[in-house]
Design goal:
By secondary structure, the protein is of the alpha/beta class. It has two domains: about 150 residues, GTP1/OBG domain (Spo0b-associated Gtp-binding Protein, Chain: A, Distorted Sandwich), CATH 2.70.210; about 180 residues, Rossmann fold, CATH 3.40.50.300. The chain has six helices and 14 strands. It has a six-stranded mixed sheet, with helices on both faces. The relative contact order is 0.13.
């Protein structure tokens, strides 16, 4: 199974047109000489990053892309028309790999960024090109150069300021739908979100930032368990991590074991921190805030105890929210905005 943030395509740029061998033949024109034109250049395969695209779904439905070949040269010194290029629009944040070697060929991180994935072949020369003072009637021509063919693998790594982490059912989709216009699927069973989604949070008239709802991770994600690599790659470009931990009923996949006096929520938090460190040690050093969710499901005394424990054991900022009733969400958004600003200055 693959998500719509990964696609495999075959591309072929256009071949150049062949040069033409022709001699001018007109009544009353003696020794008209060569007039064969050059072939046209083949079309390119061009990738363009755009904010208007959010997934690679279109490329999963169309896996073969071919540009038009250049037209052949013609008599009367006519150069063949160039082949039409093909433009493939991809979301901002798309990385392009060579399928055969695994080499990263392009990293499209800016809106309207262009990259020529395959150059069209040059057109061949007509016999007019070879005319000289010593060769007045050349018959030589050249054929067009073939286009390039490549097998590519595309990966979308979401470009976001804040990445939401947590076990399934930690409340990530509920939170992002409460603070932005994003409408991910929300339900009372685990693994509701099967593809990452983005939401734009607006603070006042000018301030805004982007949140990525990363699908729920499980223990062993760094080894690929539960399609962990597809999820973890989206965290790589986020500037701040918000780690959501449920205060309500234990999340599916909760870590069991450990000392009896250790909070289950703390064990779950540490389990995902371990997966982050195994996947990318630098990623684990990103600024992070711990968000205790579903405060409306537990008593105030329990909330204070859990919050104090997290602050003591992790040394990180801890926020407590209930997204459905918007309790604590405004304070959390202001904290995230402040952390984003600090991360941008470093």
């Amino acid at each position: 199974m693959r998500f719509i943030d990964e696609a495999h395509i075959q591309i072929s740029s256009g071949a150049g047109g062949n040069g033409c061998r022709s001699f001018r033949r007109e009544k009353f024109v003696a020794f008209g000489g060569p007039d064969g034109g050059d072939g046209g250049r083949g079309g390119d395969i061009i990738m363009v990053a755009s904010h208007r695209k959010t997934t690679l779904l279109e490329l999963r439905g169309k896996t073969i892309w071919r540009a038009q070949r250049g037209e052949h040269g013609r008599g009367k010194q006519q150069t063949g028309a160039g082949g039409e290029s093909v433009v493939i629009t991809v979301p901002v944040g798309t990385r392009v790999f060579d399928e055969d070697t695994g080499e990263i060929l392009a990293d499209l991180t800016e809106n309207e960024q262009h990259w020529i994935a395959a150059k069209g072949g040059a057109g061949g020369r007509g016999n007019l090109f070879f005319k000289s003072s010593t060769n007045r009637a050349p018959t030589k021509t050249t054929t067009g150069i073939p286009g390039e063919e490549r097998s590519l693998r595309l990966e979308l790594m979401l470009m976001a300021d804040v990445g939401l982490l947590g076990f399934p059912n930690a409340g990530k989709s509920t939170f992002i739908s409460a603070v932005s216009a994003a409408k991910p699927k929300v339900a009372d069973y685990p693994f509701t979100t099967l593809a990452p989604s983005l939401g734009v949070v607006k603070l006042g008239l000018d301030a805004s930032f982007v949140i990525a709802d990363i699908p729920g991770l499980v223990e062993g994600a760094s080894d690929g368990t539960g399609l962990g690599h597809q999820f973890l790659r989206h965290v790589s470009r986020t500037r701040v991590l918000a780690h959501l931990v449920s205060l309500g009923e234990h999340d599916e996949g909760a870590v069991h074991g450990g000392s009896s006096d250790e909070l289950d929520s703390l064990r779950r938090y540490r389990a995902l921190r371990h997966e982050l460190e195994r996947y990318d040690s630098n990623l684990a050093q990103r600024p992070e805030v711990i968000v205790l969710t579903k405060l409306d499901l537990v008593d105030d005394a329990v909330i204070e105890e859990v919050k104090a424990t997290f602050e003591r054991e992790t040394g990180r900022s801890v926020a407590v929210i209930s997204a459905p009733i918007h309790e604590g969400t405004d304070a959390l958004l202001k904290l995230l905005w402040s952390m984003i600003g600090q991360a941008g200055e470093e």
